[in-house]
Each structure stands twice: as C-alpha cells, then as structure tokens.
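For reproducibility, we list the full input for the magnesium ion complex.
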Amino acid sequence: MNTKLVILDRDGTINVDSDEFIKSPEEWHPIEGALEAIGRLNHAGYHVVLATNQSGLGRGLMDVASLNAIHDKMNKQLSKVGGRIDAIFYCPHAPEESCQCRKPAPGLLEQIAERYGMGLEGVPFVGDSLRDLQAAQAAGCRPHLVLTGKSVGLRGQALPTDYPAQTQAHHDLDAFVSHWLRAVAASSAALSASAG
Ligand SMILES: [Mg+2]
Ligand SMILES: [Zn+2]
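The corresponding predicted structure, in tokenized form, follows.
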C-alpha cells in the first residue's frame, strides 16, 4: 500500500514569506495555525514532505548552514505541537541555472516519488504560488492553493483562468487540512458502505 503523503511548499504556505528571502532563523515565522495543521495531518497517519525553491542559496544570499538552522527552528516548533516533517526537498539553484528542480519544474516532486517508491496520482501538493500548481500538475499531483503568502490578494475572488483547472483553493493551510481530512473520511465511508 502506498504511503499516505501530503507535499507542502514552505514559504508563504507554512511560514510568512518575504521578498527579501528568508535567510536566517530569526526571519522565519510560522503562519498562525500552520504548524498545528501539520500536526493534525501526522495524527491522521500522513507523512508530510516539503518541496521548496531556495534560490537564496544559488544567489549567494545564504549558505546551507543557515538553511539547516532555519529548518532546525521549524522542526523544534513543530515538535512542540506534535508535528513532524519527514523530509525537505529543496532546489538550491538560481533561476538562470535552468535546472530541472526549480518549481514550476516537477523535479522536486519526482525526487519525492522516487524516495517513497510510489506514483503521485492523488497526492496533494499544497502551495501559495501559481508555480506550485504548475509543478503539481506536471508531476500528476492534485494542485491545492492556499490563499496566504503570494496569493493573499486572491481571497474572495475567482481564480485566474490560466490556473490549472483542477486547482482547489483554501483560506490557509489549516483550512486545507480540514478539507482534506473530511474528504478522505467521506470517501472511505463511501467505500466501506459499498463494500458492506
Ligand atoms: Mg511559496
Ligand atoms: Zn534546482
């Protein structure tokens, strides 16, 4: 049986984003309710994995030690609310390096599929940017948009027509998790009803 997996973007999805990049633990602040939401996924048996562009590395704005320190802070705060991130897949490249892993390219998601030895059909990828949705679509994930970070301006509006048609939008990560756990419970109830 496949691992129960949810893939998340980081900046603007879990933590407050910044146009100046998040370069140190001091600059990393969780979005209200996001860490608890990850904990609820874990509690329901989900493995949570991150797929994040970190071009601050390729641009020379921070080093890997700083990125690790940021993730230490995140993991410590998560563990206080019973949450855990399994693995962090990041693209370290600058845009002009034309790599295969910087979203909207699906490389990070393909690495995750390889690591878990499974296809990504039906696996949700949750992010705050169009490029997250595009990466999700290219890798066969279900695209979920959170209206935090880069998409706060889309609250209360219809999604732009160039967004992937299957995109589902949610107020924030907490709302996504509530939606997802409800949807999973409903479909397993339907399954057991048809089996019984
Ligand atoms: Mg983001
Ligand atoms: Zn890359």
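Residues 91, 93, 99, 101-102 surround zinc ion (ligand 2) (CB under 6 Å). The radius of gyration is 16 Å. Both points were considered when choosing residues for closer inspection.
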